[in-house]
Structure formats: structure tokens, C-alpha cells
Design goal:
Layout (H helix, E strand, L loop, with lengths): L2 H6 L4 E3 L7 H9 L14 H4 L2 H4 L1 H10 L4 E7 L11 E10 L2 E5 L18 H4 L2 H4 L3 E3 L20 E2 H6 L5 H14 L4 E4 L7 E4 L1 E6 L11 E6 L7 E5 L7 E3 L1 H16 L13 E2 L1
Antiparallel strand pairs: 1-2, 2-3, 3-4, 4-5, 6-9, 7-8, 9-10, 10-11, 11-12, 12-13
Helix pairs in contact: 5-10
Length: 284
């Protein structure tokens, strides 16, 4: 997918230099606390992915060798769905192109806030590498920033529940419920009671998927998904292989970094073969 094709995917403007950006867009970025991201556009992107250098060296080396440019995509739209309404709402995304793949970085808080505050029971090696450089990464098939598959998601913005994953396996309620029971037999606290701002407690699905290796739009059991439990503090990474809910796996703590680095480098390279996670994970 080239830049011209991306622009057709509902992007009004694409910038690769700070000086190209108009005053109105800069103002909207400032309102969102994203004004600093423009300093990373174009070839300055290397500053951003330096976070990968020590913790994810294979992925870092692959990206660095390609010398990608970082682009800012902007879309203006109207909250009122009428053709005469003024386009006064703003959306944006960050992306780069590597090996003919469009890689999205969700821009919310990107490069700005203190992303060392890992309060999500998320593996530190991934949080301090991928999520200091972006608020969730994805190989996108649609407009950049519109979907999260195949790379590392952020626990606050781009991780889905295990229910969502299981729902993509089957349309049969009985099979779905059986899958949930199998997982609960190994991970009893799939569901927890929680509350926000003194609201009435409600049931929350605590098992969250931060990586789904299936390409966007592809469902079914073939593929690998990786989860963390946001109700715990153990930072365990659970592995679901080919939808085998009766044999949940996990990645030992010291293998999480090497496993994800090898996989992400394999994927960013555009390698068409499936990556084998089984040497890195064990049965729970």
C-alpha cells in the first residue's frame, strides 16, 4: 500500500514534515496534547523507535535498516451526518510503510506522557519497548489507526477481551460457552467484579488480548493470541494456539521479550510463513 492509496482511504491530508502542517491542525493536535508528535515526522522517526533498541533488538534492527518515514494522517469530519454540516471534528493517526506494509501507531499520548507508569499488569519488557514508542502498534488493512492486529496493542486503548476473541471463533452459543468454561478451568478469574468512580460494581472480563496474529478481517481458530489478566499483578502472558481452549499455554517471563521480538521482526519483514510460538510457550 503506497501513500497515495492510503490517502484514498478517507484521509484528507498526509504530512511528513512539521512545516507542512496548517495552523488549524496544529491547534487541534495541541488540544489533544499531541503537539510534540510533529517533531518525529519524516526521518526523525528514528528517535521514536530507539526505545526498541535494547529490549527488542531484532525488530529495532529491521526497522532501522529500512529507514522509514513517519507520517501523520488527518481527517476532518462532521459529528452531524448531513452533507451541509461543517467538518469541525478532528481525527488523526501516525503510520509508516515498511516492506509494503502500513504500520499504525495509535497517537493518543504517544511520545508525550510518562509511559513508564505500567499499571496494567502488562509485561515490562513490552511496555517499555513498544509502548513507549507508540500507544499500540498494528499492521493495518484499512485506514491507518482503524484496526489493531498482528502487532503489540496497548492495554488501555487497543486490547480486546477474550470474549471478543472467542466470539470470532464460532457463531454457536453452546461452543462459545464451552470455550469460556475450558479457559476458566485453567484461569478462574477470567471475570472479576469492578467499579469505576463509585459506580455499582459490574462484571468485567479481565483476560485481555494484546496480540492477535490473524490479519484484520480473518476469523476462525487458526492463529495465536496472547493475553494478560488486568486483575492481577503477576504479569503472566497466556498463549492461545489455534483456538485450543482446553490447552491454554503461557510464556515464561524470561522468554516473553525474545518471543515477541522474534515474532515482530518476522512480521515486519513481511515473511509470508507463519511464525512458530510453540518453542517459546508451555502448557499451563
Amino acid at each position: 500500500m503506497n501513500i497515495r492509496e492510503i490517502k484514498k482511504e478517507n484521509m484528507d491530508f498526509i504530512y511528513d514534515e512539521k512545516e507542512q502542517i496548517d495552523t488549524q491542525t496544529l491547534g487541534e493536535l495541541g488540544k489533544l496534547g499531541l503537539h510534540s508528535i510533529v517533531d518525529f515526522l519524516g526521518s526523525n522517526f528514528e528517535i521514536a523507535f530507539n526505545y526498541l533498541k535494547d529490549l527488542q533488538p531484532k525488530s529495532y534492527a529491521l526497522i532501522k535498516a529500512q529507514k522509514p518515514k513517519l507520517y501523520l494522517g488527518v481527517q476532518w469530519y462532521s459529528a452531524i451526518p448531513t452533507p451541509w454540516a461543517e467538518k469541525d471534528d478532528f481525527d488523526c493517526c501516525l503510520f509508516f510503510v515498511i516492506n509494503n506494509q502500513t504500520i499504525s501507531l495509535w497517537p493518543k499520548l504517544t511520545f508525550k506522557n510518562n509511559l513508564n507508569d505500567n499499571s496494567f499488569n502488562f509485561p515490562d519488557v513490552l511496555f517499555n519497548a513498544w509502548l513507549r514508542a507508540g500507544f499500540g502498534w498494528s499492521i493495518t488493512q484499512l485506514r491507518p489507526g482503524s484496526d489493531f492486529r498482528q502487532l503489540i496493542g496497548h492495554p488501555e486503548s487497543s486490547c480486546c477481551s477474550v470474549e471478543y476473541i472467542l466470539g470470532s471463533f464460532t457463531t454457536e452459543k453452546s461452543i462459545y460457552e464451552s470455550d469460556i468454561r475450558r479457559i476458566q478451568a485453567k484461569i478462574p478469574d477470567v471475570y472479576t467484579m469492578t467499579s469505576v468512580a463509585q459506580q455499582t460494581p459490574y462484571k468485567w472480563c479481565s483476560l485481555r488480548c494484546f496480540l492477535d496474529t490473524r490479519p484484520f478481517g480473518i476469523n476462525g481458530r487458526d492463529g495465536d493470541q496472547f493475553f494478560f489478566n488486568d486483575a492481577r499483578t503477576d504479569k503472566v502472558v497466556y498463549h492461545l494456539h489455534d483456538g485450543d481452549t482446553g490447552n491454554i499455554r503461557y510464556i515464561p517471563a524470561d522468554a516473553v521479550g525474545p518471543a515477541m521480538d522474534a515474532y515482530c521482526a518476522h512480521t515486519l519483514e513481511g515473511n509470508p510463513t507463519r511464525f512458530d510460538f510453540l518453542p517459546f510457550s508451555e502448557l499451563l
